[in-house]
C-alpha cells in the first residue's frame, strides 16, 4: 500500500510529498524544493528510507533542493520530462531571482515520458506528461489508492500559471481534460500548493475548467 505525507516547504509553501511503500518502508520525495533538513527530519519521523527523488517540473520552488539532496544521500533523480531541461539549466538564476538559497542544476538519472511508470517498494505509479504550466511537467498517479500528485497543473479552485516561458493556456487545459479527468472524479489530487481536492469537485466548481 502506498502512503504519503505532504510537507509545505520554501517561502512559496510548495507541497513536497514523501511517498512510501508500507511494506518495504522505501520512500521517494516528490518535488524537494527546499528546507531539506525539515524534509529529512520528517522522513526520519515517519521511519522511512529515502531512495529516490521524483520531480513534476523544474521550477525553483519544486526543484531547488534537488541537486543538494541527491548529492547528500546519493539518490537518483527521476523526472521530469525533457521539455524542462531549460528550467533545470536555469535553476541557479531562478534561485537568485526569487531570493532562494543557491540552487544547482543537475542531470536527471532518468527522464520521464507519458505512459512511463515509477516504482517505490512494491508500489507502482503511472506517469502522465501534462504540459502547459511548463513544457516538461509530469504527474504521478496511483490508481491503487486513487491519488494523483499533480504539481502545478491543477489546484483547488484554480489552475497553473501559463505566463512563464513556454507556458501555454490551451495546452494546460488539454492536459487537464485529456490526462487528468480520465483518472476519475473520485481521485484525490495533491497539488503543488494549497489543499487537496478531487477531480470531480474541480469539474463541478473550478471556474477555469468547470464543465470540461
From TrEMBL:
Residues 192-212 are annotated as: Disordered. It comes from the Bacteria. Keywords: Hydrolase, Metal-binding, Zinc. SUPFAM superfamilies: Metallo-hydrolase/oxidoreductase. InterPro entries: MBL_Glyoxalase_II, Metallo-B-lactamas, RibonucZ/Hydroxyglut_hydro. Residues 13-193 form the Metallo-beta-lactamase domain. Signal peptide: none annotated. Its cofactor is Zn(2+). This is MBL fold metallo-hydrolase.
Amino acid at each position: 500500500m502506498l502512503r504519503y505525507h505532504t510537507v509545505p516547504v520554501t517561502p512559496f509553501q510548495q507541497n513536497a510529498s514523501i511517498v512510501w511503500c508500507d511494506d518495504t518502508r522505501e520512500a521517494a520525495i516528490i518535488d524537494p524544493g527546499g528546507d531539506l533538513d525539515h524534509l529529512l527530519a520528517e522522513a526520519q519521523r515517519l521511519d522511512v528510507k529515502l531512495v529516490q527523488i521524483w520531480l513534476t517540473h523544474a521550477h525553483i520552488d519544486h526543484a531547488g533542493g534537488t541537486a543538494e539532496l541527491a548529492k547528500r544521500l546519493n539518490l537518483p533523480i527521476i523526472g521530469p520530462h525533457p521539455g524542462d531541461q531549460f528550467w533545470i539549466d536555469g535553476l541557479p538564476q531562478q534561485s537568485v531571482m526569487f531570493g532562494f538559497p543557491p540552487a544547482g542544476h543537475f542531470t536527471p538519472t532518468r527522464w520521464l515520458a507519458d505512459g512511463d511508470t515509477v516504482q517505490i517498494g512494491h508500489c507502482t505509479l503511472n506517469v502522465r506528461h501534462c504540459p502547459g504550466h511548463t513544457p516538461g511537467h509530469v504527474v504521478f498517479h496511483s490508481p491503487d489508492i486513487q491519488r494523483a500528485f499533480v504539481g502545478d497543473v491543477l489546484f483547488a479552485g484554480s489552475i497553473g500559471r501559463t505566463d512563464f516561458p513556454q507556458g501555454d493556456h490551451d495546452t494546460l487545459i488539454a492536459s487537464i481534460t485529456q490526462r487528468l479527468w480520465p483518472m476519475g472524479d473520485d481521485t484525490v489530487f495533491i497539488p503543488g500548493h494549497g489543499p487537496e481536492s478531487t477531480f470531480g469537485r474541480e469539474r463541478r466548481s473550478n471556474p477555469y475548467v468547470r464543465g470540461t
